[in-house]
Design brief:
It comes from Plectus sambesii. The chain is of the alpha+beta class. The chain contains 5 helices and 3 strands; from the N terminus they run ββααβααα. α4 packs antiparallel against α5.
Length: 127
């Protein structure tokens, strides 16, 4: 379902209310556009992001992805990359990094995963 939201053209300091897979978040438009060539930045084109796309009943921008993984994506966009400790969530984060076109995050997740596997191998060798 599409909802049209009437508002003035946004500046980079405008906040965006989002519903990502049922998780509600609010962030600055500038944060979402941090990596201008990423898919997520392209979801919020200048002058049109507030009228195009899918909106929920509360007029929050809706993205049909895993909301729990998106929290880590948002942290990365804010300049702080944190890795989840849960293996399945790590896999979801890798999928979302690829989906959103955040190649730097994808590389960090990949490297973190390799480091964790190396640690497990060391512990297995000690037994």
């Amino acid at each position: 379902m599409f909802w049209l939201v009437e508002s003035p053209p946004p500046t980079e300091e405008v906040t965006v209310n989002m519903n990502v897979g049922g998780f509600r978040v609010e962030t600055r438009l500038a944060t979402l556009r941090k990596f201008e060539h990423s898919v997520i930045a392209q979801m919020f084109p200048p002058g049109r992001w507030f009228t195009e796309g899918l909106f929920d009943r509360e007029q929050s921008r809706f993205i049909d992805r895993n909301g729990e993984a998106f929290i880590y994506v948002l942290d990365h966009l804010r300049g702080k990359t944190i890795m989840p400790s849960d293996r399945s969530l790590m896999d979801r984060l890798m999928d979302d990094a690829e989906f959103y076109g955040l190649w730097e995050l994808q590389q960090k997740v990949h490297n973190h995963d390799l480091n964790c596997r190396e640690i497990w191998i060391i512990f297995e060798d000690m037994e």
